[in-house]
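Sequence in, structure out. Go.
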Amino acid sequence: MARALRLLIPLALIPAFAAPATQHSAHAEGSMTANAPYWEGLMESMTRMHAAMSSARPSADADTDFVALMLPHHQAAIDMAKVELTFGKDPQLRRLAQEIVTDQESEIQLMTLWRQQHTCDRESARKPCTDQRKEW
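Output:
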């Protein structure tokens, strides 16, 4: 349950981070926040994630598509957590950010391995197109 909450927290924060900075420009402190280095880092990670996810094309395989979309999502979570570790001050959030980095890096490795085991080279016999599924 705690692990699920750690994974859902970044998802819950997406709408807040995706809101345009101009919404806050009416307030003096809002415009300062929009120019803060941490905000730029958060927005850059979101932009990279959205670009990577929107450039993915369906493969006709749910597993492959899941991995293709989750990899940039997890990387964005890591990037955002590193921003928190650099600029954040709250000990609980910093600890959560460190756990996010550790957990998401491990999951990226797992998905990358899965993708390597399930990708084939149709032009050569180096890696035939066979199902190499293994139970983890």
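Check: The first helix runs from residue 2 to 18. Residues 17-28 have pLDDT under 50 and may be disordered.
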